Amino acid sequence: MTHGRLHAVHGPRGLAVSNFAKIRPIGRRRDGRPIYPIKGGAPTLAEQRDEVARLLADPDYDGDVAELLQRADQVAAAIEQAQQRDARLRALQAAQLPAGDPQPQGGQRRQEPGMGPDEHGNEHPLTVAEAFVRSKALESFRANGKRGQFSVDGAEFRAAPSGTVTTGTQPQQNTRVPGILPQNPDFPLLIANLLDRQTSDGTTLEYMRDTSGPQSTWNAAAVVAEGGDKPKSGPFSFDLITTTLKTVAHWVPITRQAADDNSQLMGYINGRLTYGLEYKLDREILTGNGTTQMQGILTTSGIGTYQPGSGNTDAKLITVRKAKTQGELALYPPDAIVMNPLDWQDIELDTDANGQFRVITSVTDSGAPMRIWGLTVVTSVAMTAGTALLGGFRMGATLWERQGVTILMTDSHADYFTANTLVILAERRANVAVHTPAAFVKITFAALP
């Protein structure tokens, strides 16, 4: 009888290729135990092991070596799995049931709905369905021929057994949002990007500042008749400016444990320190005093100014356009304007007689570049409300930097070493060379009526 027998497929040199991994029961006995193929229906693990081992040791084997090695791995894995199953079986059979473990009564547990204990043999608190099935009201309803109506009182629900874990067992914990949320607003820092930026090789900065003034004061170029004398231009006027690169820095203390264990906190601190330097740099470019601080453009002598005349109430939109003309007349076409957010708000909200905005075309396009009269607009709280700076920024000034932002960490500060505390320091060295003041125009807006 060959029904259910598992045969081997023969490979090179008549070698039986194992199908042991695919052996499945061919049926089940009445008690539920599986029936496997009889011995001889397929090679046993021992037979497969011995056959593969013999071929591995055969120096004259000319079959598929890769296939032979794969079969060797399969046989070894099957033997290991069989050993594990045997070990688990012996451990399970040797396990002792705990004292008091409930045994089935009469050979069976009660199977009525809602009457069964939990998986440990303990009766559990009633659910609504279980309370309904066990209720006296249902029992009476059935006894009365299922006539009338009834309800199940909540009092029939059995209370939770003692020792049940409830929300009062452990005090509730507050919900904490993971991570660190920035608490300080990151306002765009763009003023430095308007300037020409160069790298300095030293700490002392010397440059020539053009103080020649308007074209009419030095340019005498003219058409000359044949044989006539050519006009002389000038004088050209320059000042030699000598200054130093200024260091902008700040630091915070942090425990060594926090620095070692909380990388997110470290990233946040480094980001905050870097932002602080950029924030200060933007303000120095505008208003630095040029001595103890960087040289600010607004504090440099020789820059142009524009302010509507007395009694002139030009809108800020018009004032900017007239100031642009002044810059162009100085032969330094402006390319950008820096203003306070409140002044830019007034310009964007300026409307015509029909209530249409003059500057913006769509209030939904918040990501559009900010421009007015062909100028790039940069808003900054570093600029005092009511004033603005217009100019050819790349033509008129250069930001010289000795180094970019540097982050340093040390425990060599006061008694920080013994206190397991570190110092995180952020610094940069830079200064502004305003070599062509005439390229800039400071605007003072007329007071609103």
Structural class: alpha+beta
Q: Percentage of helical residues?
A: 25-40%
Query: What is the distance, rounded to the nearest whole angstrom, between the alpha carbons of the first and last residues?
Result: 112 Å
- Enter the CATH topology name of the domain at 191-218 and 235-444: Major capsid protein gp5 fold
Which architecture name of the domain at 191-218 and 235-444 does CATH use?
Answer: 2-Layer Sandwich
Largest sheet: 6 strands, mixed
CATH class of the domain at 191-218 and 235-444: Alpha Beta
What spatial form do the alpha-carbon principal axes imply? Answer: elongated
Q: CATH-wise, what's the superfamily of the domain at 191-218 and 235-444?
A: Major capsid protein gp5
Number of extended strands? 16
For the CA atoms, what is the radius of gyration?
Answer: 45 Å
pLDDT averaged residue by residue:
77
Order of helices and strands: EEEEHHHHHEEEEHHEHEHEEEHEEE
Q: Could you tell me the strand content as a percent range?
A: 15-25%
- Stretches with pLDDT under 50, minimum 5 residues: 1-22
The number of helical segments is 10
**Biggest sheet strand line-up:** 9-16-13-10-12-11
